Sequence to fold (93 residues):
Amino acid sequence: MKRCDQAGPDLGEIEGWFDDVLTGRVTRDAADRWATRWLSGDSAGKVDLAADQLWALELLGGIDLTHGPGAGFLHNEEQIRAWRDEVRAHRRA
Fold:
């Protein structure tokens, strides 16, 4: 992954995280932690995120949610692929 500037990650980088989850290069947990770091904590109030960045990071930030303890993931790969494709389309628009 490339380093981000003070404006936060661009849609291409966020799309890359979706790709990395789908191919197994990173875990859902790692992607969630990365996105959440931009939405809260150290980055909150220090990085100016545009509406499209917030939208895409919020999708990625919930990627590891489960139906409950010991249960499967709330969002399946088809839904993750659809989110990735939405981010890609928005980036190209």
In short: The two ends are 23 Å apart (CA to CA). Residues 82 and 88 are 10 Å apart (CA to CA).
